[in-house]
Write a structure and sequence with these properties.
By secondary structure, the protein is an alpha/beta fold. The chain has helices at about 5-35, 55-60, 70-80, 100-105, 115-125, 155-165, 185-205, 220-225, 235; strands at about 45, 65-70, 90, 110-115, 135-140, 170-175, 210, 230. It has nine helices and eight strands. Strands 7-6-5-4-3-2-1-8 form an eight-stranded parallel beta sheet. Bound molecules: pyridoxal-5'-phosphate.
Length: about 240
């Protein structure tokens, strides 16, 4: 490709990511207004799994700070390539095997998918030398799906108590991925259950302030039910490349 063309296409990719971010942020703003909530109550988490490092940098340059990754090794490569972006915030949102917990404790700011006490204890030890605790969300299997990660709501109160006792983890709230096939009514019911659990968790733990709920298709409903963090990938970056 001639140099001029290649420069033009890089420019257009950068521009496309910037415009997509603006569109998603506008959607969040509209959903907040509809829900009569403040716009700054909801944070956009840009899900960058299977997206190139260069695209993450473009999103950062357009003002995005929170990024979510699902696969440890892929994420570590990107984190290392982007260490010059000092205020970037990395969230691990995929299933976490205990043999990978050290990488998450070392290199991430947040974990959304905490569901096992054994992993929580490992993370706590592995985070001990860091000045800031790992910010954790407990994943809830909100629709009791056999194949989905997360604890049941009935276990939340015990599990939260044990996690909260770990000094190098900071319990910040809950995360859920609703059943893909749920009807709108079922989804609303699931989100309402989760919202109730979140409110009662907040009453027990004053640090709890984060409900990671909502993706492209259900952002409005999630924000209506108190989501404080929405996770959006392909609407920002386009189809996954990996
Ligand atoms: C991949 C992923 C997303 C983003 O999905 P998109 O379809 O790319 O918007 C959100 N949350 C979780 C947990 C994911 O794994």
């Amino acid at each position: 490709m001639p140099i001029a063309d290649s420069a033009a296409s890089i420019h257009s990719l950068e521009q496309r990511i910037k415009s997509a971010l603006e569109a998603v942020n506008a959607q969040i703003t509209a959903a907040c207004m509809q829900a009569e909530r403040g716009v700054d109550e909801v944070t956009l988490l840009a899900v960058s799994k299977a997206q190139p490092t260069a695209d993450i940098r473009y999103a950062y340059q357009a003002g995005q700070r929170h990024f979510g990754e699902n696969y440890v090794q892929e994420a570590l490569d990107k984190i290392h390539a982007l260490t010059d972006l000092q205020d970037i915030i990395w969230h691990f949102i995929g299933p976490l095997q205990s043999n990978k917990s050290k990488d998450v404790a070392e290199h991430f700011d947040w974990l959304h998918s905490l569901e096992r006490l054994k992993v929580a204890r490992r993370l706590n030890q592995q985070r001990a030398h860091k000045p800031v605790p790992l910010q954790v969300l407990i994943q809830i299997n909100i629709d009791d799906e056999d194949t989905k990660a997360g604890i049941e709501l009935a276990q939340l109160s015990d599990f939260a108590k044990q996690v909260n006792a770990l000094e190098h983890l900071s319990l910040r709230g809950l995360m859920a991925i609703p059943q893909a096939t749920a009807s709108a009514a079922e989804r609303t019911a699931s989100f309402a259950r989760l919202a109730t659990a979140f409110t009662s968790l907040q009453a027990d733990y004053p640090n709890v302030d984060t409900l990671s709920l909502g993706m492209s298709g259900d952002l409005n409903t999630a924000i209506q039910h108190g989501s404080t963090m929405v996770r959006i990938g392909t609407a920002i970056f386009g189809q996954r490349k990996g």
